[in-house]
Amino acid sequence: MSGEMQKIIQKLGILTPDQKKPAEPTPSNSISSPSTPLETNSPPSSAAPEPAASSHEAGPESPASTLSSLPNGVHEVKDAQGHVIQRIPFKEGKINGALETYKNGKLSQSLSYKEGILDGQTLGYDDSGHLTHRMNYEQGELSGLFEMYSHGVLFLQVSYQKNLKEGVEKAFRLTGELFSERFFVKGKLNGLSKFFGENGLLQRSAFYKDDLLWGEVETFYSSGHLLEKSTYVNNLLDGESITYYENGKILQKSFYKQGKLIGQPQHFNEKGKEIKA
Question: What is this structure's pTM?
Answer without folding.
Answer: 0.74
